[in-house]
Amino acid sequence: MKQYMVRKEFMKPNRDVYVVNAKNIRDVMKALKESYSGGIYLATIAAVDKVKENVFELNYFIHIVYLSKTIVIKTTVPRDNPRIDTVIDIFPGAYEAEAEAYDLMGIEFVGNKYLKRPFFAPVDVVAQNIYPLRKDAPV
Amino acid sequence: MAEREATTVIKIPITLDIPIGPQHPAIHEPVMLKIYADGEEVVHAEVNTGYNHRGIEKLMEKNSFYKDKFISSRVCGICNAVHENCYTRAVEYLAGLEPSPRAKYIRVLAMELERIHSHMLINAIMAEVIGFDTLFMYIMRDRELVMKAKEILTGNRVEAEIHMFGGVRRDIDDVKKDKIMDILKKLEPRLKYYRKLFEEDPTINSRLAEIGILKPETVLGYSLLGPILRGSGIKSDVRAEDKYDAYGEIPWTVITRPEGDSLARMLVRWDEALESLEICKYILEHLPQGPAVVDERKLPRVFPPGESYARVEAPRGELVYYINSVGGANPYRVKIRTPSAVNIINSAFSYVGHSIADVPVILVSYDPCISCMERAIVLDLKNNVEKRVPLKYIAQKKVRL
């Protein structure tokens, strides 16, 4: 785990945040799953559109049942090419989170063949190619 | 070239669509579950969503932290108190606010009353789905007692609206306390009776037991939460893990059952309702003295930058709020992950292999349905023979084409 970590941060109230490089996301998830086998689930993926930094930030919230603890894996993908490897084969529970991030934020999870639009967004929004949760989406 | 080489043609002539979704007649979730069945056996299930997406996350970005409190409690009608609790605590973590002990107890009381009526509702629906309409009516009648208790506590029968940053919005006096206690005493024998009924009645047992069995590792892999997780023997409850509000001070136990079937999930719900009843009684007897209601005029209008991630044990499982603030009056990003989203969208795999009649049962033990029937005819062009085979044999390569 340490070899992939860029830096460690902290999220309120008591969540440890491990910032990793986007290209290592699959290795990180595999390492986590192996070390806590049978007692870990992916709670959700929260995507944040950081317009100023020109990136999308992805927060993977992982809950470790043994330790009663939630940790956060944070990574960023460039805004003009929002692509990241999928983790759906490692955590099948990522389906809902990845489908939602793809539909509402436009982040493509490479290797996830179940992604589709519209998933949540209405048909007319999808027809205009708008990703509703992006900061530049018209309201 | 290709045409000359073809020796087999597969025709799929029968497609029987039964459009029951997106509004399932039995339950409130506007989701379409498309079932592909081979005869009676489900071979594939698909979940189609988007019928009720209201864009609340975007709406919350456009409104102030204060208005968002009222938006968050309108995400879900059944479990509105847990939504506002989760949002309120996420903001409190950001701003460094701490509610008083009395306020914490009142919050827990509101949430536990909600858990009782939510568990009663889903059990009532289960009773209706398996054909016990009178039982449905009885459970719903007794559920009204809890709604009354909630009304006495919060002023509203459904929307609690009792949370505020740093405390609660209403306090309770001794008269209200006694009234709620009376209701809880009236409710207790009813809950015990229904629990016994679900456990011992042979018809309910044969309808629910060993249907939709989920192994612990499957449940974790697919991130299924709440009573599904605990019904498969995994001891994970946010109330015990995060000990938010007053849960660290109140004696209670996490309910688990090892079976992992639909019956186990329903019994976990009944046991949790009884456990919640004890929590409510304990709170009414041990309510700390002191202030509970906050002066909303003195609360900060602008909140500091930062990130927070709050978890709460909603009746259906772990509910999470992630708030990203860059400072100011509005949040920069709010991410809400409701337990139902995961439980319904990720659970399509669990219907496969069961009969169509079992789908509503599994569905209600976490939720809606639609059936499609497909079957293939294989034409052997060489010998001019036609045979009907189930699609699943083609998928499993049991039929040589």
TrEMBL record, chain A:
Q: Which InterPro entries match?
A: NADH_quin_OxRdtase_su_C/D-like (IPR037232), NADH_UbQ_OxRdtase_30kDa_su (IPR001268)
| Pfam families in the record | Complex1_30kDa
**All residue ranges annotated as the NADH:ubiquinone oxidoreductase 30kDa subunit domain in the record:** 19-138
Listed PANTHER family: NADH DEHYDROGENASE [UBIQUINONE] IRON-SULFUR PROTEIN 3, MITOCHONDRIAL, NADH DEHYDROGENASE UBIQUINONE IRON-SULFUR PROTEIN 3
What family does the entry list? Belongs to the complex I 30 kDa subunit family.
Q: What is this protein called?
A: NADH-quinone oxidoreductase subunit C
From TrEMBL, chain B:
Pfam families cross-referenced by the UniProt entry: Complex1_49kDa, NiFeSe_Hases
Could you list the residue ranges that cross the membrane? none
* Key words of the record: Iron, Magnesium, Metal-binding, Nickel, Oxidoreductase
Q: Where does this protein hold Fe cation?
A: C79, C372
Question: Which SUPFAM superfamilies does this chain map to?
Answer: HydB/Nqo4-like
As cofactor, the record names:
Ni(2+); Fe cation
Residue positions binding Ni(2+) = C76, C79, C369
Which domain of life does the protein's organism represent?
A: Archaea
What GO MF terms are annotated?
A: oxidoreductase activity
Domain (NADH-quinone oxidoreductase subunit D): give its ranges.
Answer: 130-299, 303-375
List the InterPro entries hit by this protein, alphabetically.
ComplexI_49kDa-like, NADH_Q_OxRdtase_suD, Ni-dep_hyd_lsu, Ni-dep_hyd_lsu_Ni_BS, NiFe-Hase_large
Sequence positions that bind Mg(2+): E57, I336
Name used for this protein in its record: Nickel-dependent hydrogenase large subunit
Q: Source species, please?
A: Ignisphaera cupida
